[in-house]
Amino acid sequence: MLTIFRWLLRLTVAMILLLVAGAVLIWYFAIRSLPDYDASYEMAGLSAPVEIIRSTEDVPHIFGQSDEDVFFALGVAHAQDRLFQMTVLRRAAQGRLSEIYGASGFELDDLARRLGLYEHAAASVGAQDPETLAALEAYSAGINEWIRQVNEGAMGKGAPEFFLFPDQITYWQPADSLAILKLLAASTSRAIGDEVLRARLSLAWPEHGPELQSPGDPVRQPYASLLPGARLGIPQSHRTGSHPMDLRGFLHPGMGLSANGFAAASSRTAANGSLLANDPQAPLTVPSLFYLARLELISGGVIGATIPGIPAIWSGRNQHLAWGLTPAAMDDADIYIEEIKPGASDSYRGISGWTQFRTESAVIRILDGQSQTITLRETENGPLVPRIDPGLQDVTPYGHVASLRWTGLSQQDRTMSALIGLMRSGSRAAAAEAMAQTVAPALTVTLADPEGVHQFTAGAVPQRAADHPTGGKMPAPGWLREARWTGIAQAAELEPGVSSEAEMVIATDEPQDGQRRKRLTYLLGDREVHSRDSFIATQLDVVSPAARALLPLVGANLWFSGEPASAGTPERQRQDALNLLAEWDGEMSEHLPEPLIYAAWMRELQKRLIQDELGPLADDITQLHPAFIDAVFRNRNGAARWCNIIQSAPDEDCTTIARQALDRAILDLTDRFGPQVASWRWGDLHQAQHDHPGLGRISGLGWVMNLTQSVSGGEFTLARSGLLGGGENPYEAVSGAAYRGVYDLADPDSSVFIISTGQSGHPFSRHYDDLAELWRRGEYIGMSLDPELARAAAVGVTELIPAE
Q1: Does 613 show up as a binding residue in the annotation?
Q2: All structural domains of the chain
Q3: Which residues of 64-87 are buried (b: 16+ CB within 10 A; e: fewer)?
Q4: What is the average pLDDT value for the chain, to the nearest integer?
Q5: CA distance 281 to 763
Q6: Which annotated residues bind Ca(2+) (predicted)?
Q7: pLDDT in tens, 681-702
Q8: What pLDDT is recorded for position 30?
Q9: Any binding-site annotation on 110?
Q10: Tell me, what DSSP letter sits at residue 209?
């Protein structure tokens, strides 16, 4: 017995030693990939020495003697801090995520291959102007030289993720940067999802379903009348109720990225200098989609937010100009339903009769699985895209397939040239001329210089015939001539934009009557004179205009009704909740109970309004539609019909439905947090979940790689945080302002910047999440174009020396 005990003890000690040794080895190899910011590197491709000066927050300030050398160094800096993110974004655009993630990446790869993102990007390389092509080539060379340094110096493969994901890092090419820009453009558009959902609603309730999305703006005709074979049958829910796997590539087509942008001319500012604010919003990943950088170009210094893989400042300023980019609320894509020829699956019905598909094959390699060969087919309208939206199968009749036409499917896309030209522009006029080259994504461009502010839309705009059967609001029969685009125009040619003499300009990704736009208009108009601090306060505003509009309407017949109920009863809880909401100003503060009560009430109310009419399809309506609820409770065009539950004998009114929804919401919150209504907090459920797209889902690593923070705000606040909408916590914030910037041209060096995580993508770096708490608290960092200030505050200086 003693011998057995000794052997067990020896085995236990050996196992512990092996585990410790393994942990030390993992730590050692992972730590090797941390870049040394105080080092010198000899690199081929440079014409002269370059300095990369790192600030306290790890922001690179790059100084070189030519623009090409500066872009080269930006490639080095991006690769030092975000190499895994860059390669994953490239893989997402190429349709090659399955090679590192396995079968879970197949659907994303399938969609990227069918869209041909990389092929269209590669074809667009030759369309760039010479300056942009030189920048792309220099940037690629910088990335490749860093990869070479990593390989020759055995620097941990460049990022710790590469120890867990088998990845042969191929050298970077200009087409890779254009492909990531294509992926960003595809991720910006909402048109496809809106079309499919509107068609599903039309099939579920032909007379009134689409008014859920667009009250007062009915579609031209029911979807079933366009395609008589379309039958929804029993509506199917496609909601997963958990974090979408599409974040494995950081971005995914159809996400619907958003932003706010606003500016004030010097006549409306306290310091007599123009102001501009911009906050591009994206999925909350770690690292953030954005990366701060400063470049010293021949035309002058430029500073702001970049996207790793793209050598351009997306939002920022130079010595003379500030700019912000907001996705334009534009219908830039159409789904077409194509009829397959009976008995001949290689042909479809075109305008002139039966036409053969253009066909080719592609192979998707899958880690630890069998490679899959897919057939790519294309029609006159565009590529077939069966997996572009999970609800598309519900609206595609038997014997038909779906194709896509999208402005981003261009092989002469000069959007990268537009962005590079914007950085170098010294005036609003020059910037407008540069951005006129934009194709996709369509953008609202906000500009400010010492003389004033200007705003316009840039990008390709589909032209549809007046007799288009759906007006682009729903999928259309692909064989109808009137459903085809009549052309593609440039937005700048169609609208002059806001006058250059305007004192104030506003941009959101919403229509003119959108909730955030209304709030932004009010805040900017409420002050005669603005300052940098008032712009910051506006950018961080967490008052919900939707809550302010809906609560008095929905609760009109519930406020203070009846005698006070006994403590501890559901009736008393309802009264306590209504009393709190009656005094609430709509501030979605993480420290208050009112936002939680409001959000739970409106979620349950909308569900009750639509569940009986739409059935399981209602489960996919995860976003609140305030305009719909407003129309129902005002009985606009008879919309109060939604309050009556069809399956029940009595006729329910809206007051009854509102009370039932509130009681159900309170019951759910009581199960979570106990019966004391005043003790509930919005931040207990409304938490920003910054997920690492690769390692964050691996058991045991999520707690190291992911970040979770309680935050204020909501879906309709200016400081926007999109909700998950399903699962155990539908109030989880899964998107938000991945970058915020406020630029003060009266005192340019007082401009402020922040990203949602940290500059580094390396979990062992102190810059992995050092900006996250500042971002959560609504704080910023300063970044100056003064070279002496950059050097005085340097925590590291990297020297790049031309190799002999």
Answers
A1: no
A2: 545-585+593-680 (1.10.1400)
A3: bebbbbbbbbbbbbbbbbbbbbbb
A4: 90
A5: 23
A6: 195, 331, 334
A7: 999 999 999 999 888 877 778 8
A8: 58
A9: no
A10: G
